[in-house]
């Protein structure tokens, strides 16, 4: 990871990401502050109200986020968060994974898993179809047998499984 | 009392050496080594994914399986470090410094034997310590009221701020995010919903298992992807001759071992964890050894020091979990979550109410580590071959395993989506040097810490003086304040000495 910083190429600056993260935690702190305020942050008839503890938590988050924000602005401007090429690599994994996770509620876990492994092996790994198909169907089948049959743990299923009567 | 404990321990060995439990140990160690070897799957994450599988087992069997996964993961990290120069776990980074140069010069077997044996020695030392000290700590902790309980949590979290090599403000933010996430959902005291903003999926709050799987599992895959990982490693053959030859040289480093054991135990109990323990031990060994200058070029002592400390720390992290209900590492936090799910209340009462469980567990630590040492020494080539499977096959399989793991926690597909959110968050936080361990510990301990805090305040009618009301609570709080302010104290010290201000 260390080599990534300032290693020739271009990409988003570490400084920008540091500031962005600090703003994100600041926003999170504000949400917690507001949420605690909604349920009461003071002393009720039966002791501290529900928002009492989170309220102080949110104050600490806000305070430390501000410190991080200032620290982030002081960060050297040249160091890179990652090169564009590296971020591209990350996105190549992130986007299929997000689509995968988004499909699970509708199609169950098996069909998206097959698709995910196929995409990875054929697109990223440049494998041939026969091996990719074998792994893509073999892995979910293994989980079906071990989890659903042996351990009796139901996994999410979709219309295809219903059609097959599984 | 000590004699009574030995009777319990003897009985514990009876439970742990039940054939079914031995089988679980073997399965656990093997799974753990796989988890430790694969990039993107760590101890905490692996245990979190497999936790739901144990819901149907007896708590003793379940925890034997899960702790053995933990031991296995600790062992597994060494294999990748030595053979491939890839630390599968953060605590095995220091092992690569000398382990990999040894492997490059054809001494892989020697390096691995030294690593495994040192791991075993470190773990064994920590288990003996747990056996002797944990019951005493637990008995002492029985006198704790809510204020003392909160003080212990405070100490645990303050140590993170003081010991972490990350900037204190980032450690605190990370920790507080964990506390805030733990607060989401039904408030147990007032029965009110808080921080849910009308989203029904948030009624039950954030499950720490989902957070662990996302932060450590998905986050790690994204990081690995960024590094464009390629596996090109050394072949490893371990034969009995090499093992025997290495074992004969190891007693020479008894001083390094002992020192590393002590460093490891200390860092494991104060929840600094295995990673800083391994670095610290390596650094000290380098300074103290007469071969110190040669460290980094394949010095066997440079493998012994970090491995011993990492395992002593990883094992010692179980002591505060069992005796106080405060886990010393993220993996111990996941195990603690497991105890809660199985209906056991971690903490001092565990030793009284569930003596059989506790001593069965402690006995299984002894046996598990012996089984582990034998297993890893015999199966290294097998695990090294796993690493030759390209990442484009392993990555989607790990993603599927993570998704299955996240789903099975509550049988809820919303959790799978949350896992992905935590994954991206984990990548972002890791890249910007926010430590993840305090976040996870805070999610696990948030409710108990808040409960202790509120109960203590109820006693005192809202006055914070309750945390300084007697010698016991004030000394724990005092230690916590010192631990939390340690970075500032260190700056002050170095200024007094006239050095430039360098935060420790």
TrEMBL record, chain A:
Residues 22-156 form the DUF1468 domain. Keywords: Membrane, Transmembrane, Transmembrane helix. Coiled coil: none annotated. Signal peptide: none annotated. The chain crosses the membrane at residues 21-40, 52-70, 90-123, 129-147. It holds the Pfam family TctB. It comes from the Bacteria. This is DUF1468 domain-containing protein. It comes from Ancylobacter novellus (strain ATCC 8093 / DSM 506 / JCM 20403 / CCM 1077 / IAM 12100 / NBRC 12443 / NCIMB 10456).
């Amino acid at each position: 990871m260390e080599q990534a910083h300032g290693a020739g190429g271009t990409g988003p600056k570490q400084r920008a990401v540091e500031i962005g993260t600090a703003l994100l935690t600041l926003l999170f702190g504000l949400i917690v502050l507001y949420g605690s305020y909604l349920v009461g942050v003071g002393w009720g008839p039966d002791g501290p109200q529900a928002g009492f503890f989170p309220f102080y938590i949110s104050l600490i988050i806000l305070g430390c986020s501000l410190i991080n924000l200032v620290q982030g602005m002081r960060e050297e401007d040249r160091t890179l968060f990652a090169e564009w090429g590296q971020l591209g690599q990350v996105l190549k994994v992130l986007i299929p994974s997000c689509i995968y996770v988004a499909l699970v509620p509708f199609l169950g876990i098996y069909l998206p898993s097959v698709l995910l492994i196929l995409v990875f092996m054929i697109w990223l790994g440049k494998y041939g179809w026969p091996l990719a198909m074998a792994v893509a169907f073999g892995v979910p089948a293994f989980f079906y047998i071990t989890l659903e049959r042996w351990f009796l743990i139901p996994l999410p299923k979709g219309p295809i499984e219903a059609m097959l009567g599984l | 009392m000590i004699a009574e404990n030995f009777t319990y321990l003897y009985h514990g060995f009876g439970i742990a050496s039940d054939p079914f439990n031995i089988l679980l140990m073997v399965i656990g160690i093997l799974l753990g080594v796989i988890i430790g070897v694969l990039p993107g799957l760590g101890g905490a994450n692996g245990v979190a994914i497999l936790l739901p599988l144990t819901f149907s087992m007896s708590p003793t069997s379940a925890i034997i399986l899960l702790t053995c996964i933990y031991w296995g993961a600790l062992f597994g990290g060494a294999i990748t470090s030595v053979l491939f120069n890839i630390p599968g776990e953060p605590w095995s980074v220091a092992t690569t410094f000398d382990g990999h140069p040894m492997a490059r010069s054809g001494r892989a077997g020697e390096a691995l034997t030294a690593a495994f044996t040192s791991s075993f020695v470190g773990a064994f030392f920590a288990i003996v310590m747990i056996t002797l000290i944990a019951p005493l700590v637990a008995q002492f902790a029985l006198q704790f009221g809510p204020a003392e309980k909160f003080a212990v949590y405070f100490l645990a979290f303050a140590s993170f701020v003081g010991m972490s090599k990350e900037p204190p403000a980032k450690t605190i933010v990370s920790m507080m995010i964990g506390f805030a996430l733990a607060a989401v959902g039904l408030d147990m005291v007032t029965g009110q919903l808080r921080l849910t903003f009308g989203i029904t999926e948030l009624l039950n709050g954030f499950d720490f298992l989902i957070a662990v799987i996302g932060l450590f599992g998905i986050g790690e895959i994204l990081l690995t992807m960024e590094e464009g990982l390629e596996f090109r490693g050394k072949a490893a053959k371990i034969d009995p001759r090499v093992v025997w030859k290495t074992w004969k040289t190891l007693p020479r480093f008894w001083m390094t071992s002992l020192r590393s054991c002590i460093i490891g135990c200390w860092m494991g109990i104060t929840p600094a964890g295995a990673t800083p323990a391994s670095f610290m031990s390596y650094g000290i060994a380098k300074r103290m050894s007469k071969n110190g200058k040669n460290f980094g070029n394949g010095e066997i002592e440079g493998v012994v020091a970090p491995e011993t400390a990492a395992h002593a720390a990883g094992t010692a992290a179980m002591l505060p979990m069992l005796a106080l209900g405060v886990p010393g590492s993220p993996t111990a936090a996941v195990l603690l979550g497991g105890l809660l799910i199985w209906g056991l209340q971690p903490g001092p009462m565990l030793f009284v109410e569930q003596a059989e469980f506790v001593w069965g567990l402690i006995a299984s630590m002894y046996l598990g580590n012996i089984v582990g040492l034998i297993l890893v020494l015999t199966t290294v080539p097998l695990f090294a071959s796993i690493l030759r499977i390209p990442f484009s096959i392993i990555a989607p399989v790990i993603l599927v395993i993570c998704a299955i793991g996240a789903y099975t926690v509550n049988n809820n597909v919303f959790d799978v989506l949350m896992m992905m959110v935590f994954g991206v968050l984990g990548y972002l936080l890791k890249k910007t040097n926010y430590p993840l361990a305090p976040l996870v510990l805070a999610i696990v301990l948030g409710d108990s810490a808040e409960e202790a805090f509120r109960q203590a305040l109820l006693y005192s009618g809202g006055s914070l003086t309750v945390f300084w009301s007697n010698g016991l609570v004030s000394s724990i709080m005092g230690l916590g304040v010192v631990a939390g302010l340690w970075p500032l104290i260190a700056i002050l010290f170095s200024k007094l000495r006239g050095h430039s201000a360098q935060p420790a």
